[in-house]
Amino acid sequence: MTAFARRHDRVMVGALAVxxxxxxxELSGRNGWVNPLFTSYPSQVLREGIELMSSPRxxxxxxxxxxxxxxxxxxxxxxxxxxxxILGRFRRLNLIFEPLIMALYxxxxxxxxxxxxxxxxxxxxxxxxxxxxxxxxPILINVLTGIKLVDPLWLRAARSYGASELDLFxxxxxxxxxxxxxxxxxxxxxxxxLGVIVAEMxxxxxxxxxxxxxxxxIMRTGRLMFLAILVSLLGTALTLGLRSVEGHVIRxxxxxxxx
Amino acid sequence: xxxxxxxDLSVEYKRLGSTTGLLALDDFKLDxxxxxxxTIVGPSGCGKSTMLKTVAGLQAPTSGEVRINxxxxxxxxxDRAMVFQDFGLLPWRTVRANIRMGVEFRRRVRGPDVxxxxxxxxxxxxxxxxxxxxxxxxxxxxxQRVGLARALIAxxxxxxxxxxxxxxxxxxxxxxxxxLLQIWETNRKTVLFITHGIDECIxxxxxxxxxxxxxxxxxxxxxxxxxxxxxxxxxxxxxxxIYRDHVWGLLExxxxxxxxxxx
Lengths: 259, 263
What we know:
Chain A is mainly α. Helix content of chain A is about 80%, strand content about 0%. Chain A has helices at about 5, 10-30, 35-40, 40-55, 60-90, 90-105, 110-120, 125-150, 150-160, 165-175, 180-200, 210-215, 220-250. The longest helix of chain A is centred in the N-terminal third of the chain and has 32 residues, at about 60-90. The model of chain A is unreliable at about 255-259 (pLDDT under 50). In chain B, α2 runs parallel beside α4. The model of chain B has no long low-confidence stretch (mean pLDDT about 90). The interface between A and B is medium-sized, with 20 and 25 residues.
């Protein structure tokens, strides 16, 4: 094997596997091995996708979904991060709030959807709320865990060299829990994205989730597949972006590496 | 007046779900003079680390007290610096930034001056060229050199070393002990040094405190009259062998006792 091939081993094998699946999918749809109404096939998906994206109303849908996601996710970080830090730092507060947080965390967000609609209507805000509820808990819980798992030896060393409580927080606990903070944000991102689509499928007249629902109702399988792939690509791109930021910030190991 | 005075020190740890505590240290008395190198040996769990932590101000005594230069110890202070068995380095900080820890929290940091001193101590512990490495990129011996430089830069009167070479392999240990002695010869700081190594405790010390199994008490204090400066050759002299036999004799009994007690 050439040096190039060896270095790009993983990418090449992965790409090849994807290509095979796509080719088989195309053939099975075109030759009628499977009814294209069920699975569509890649060239049809692409055609439908181009048609959809060039339609005059598409930017409106994309914009709505983007705003719901951005507002909800950013709000999730703005609330989850400081709250996690505070609860991780002050044990008493944590004892008070942990049961509440856990109860909310395990409640399916969709079970809350009807009441959220009663409160916030079917416009932008109810979906922002669903996205927020998805993002905030993984962030909060991981940040809290990160602070709790800070190595006591780091704290003892810093304390022996005269660190104040503020020093301990800003110079040991905060940097020490960064791997978990990133982990939480990454998990929150996935849940936020899921929240957008699901909330739009249930209550919306606009947005990508709404388009998916509509495509399903009128059996436009190609369009549905295109939208699903679009969402998955967006999620992957955002996650990779976050991982790259993480790689630049943390050069000493991730939460997942340290068990 | 001795620089370090440990008076009737007892430390009892609370045990979860038990009314009786765990007595780690019982009526421990020790005076250490300025510039003295004192090593402390004893079986595992004899309270050596507890004693050192109390002197460092990281552990409150149950009764008794520690005085440094006559002043009652209530917490960590700039007169003491600690070196930890597991190094206690912050993994997200480079070698340089970890050494800076020795001064930054006490706000004795002034720009170019500190950078210069960090460079000086990096040279003293032999870490030139590794300034921007992270701890996980260094061997154990190199990590402890960072820990040593961090303590030295704080310019304490007293160095508290808690089995500093305990996590290192045997050869690295010997080299590090030798380097520590060389540094000590130039600054003659007071050192309290905990170890499990019998050769190490003799090689380094002016006095050896031999402790009994839990609860930790002083069994005997051995004065070491070997010439200084010492080189590694001294370990093969007859005098050294006499000390080795003596310390081992004291310890063997305690180690057996602590094994029987299932500690």
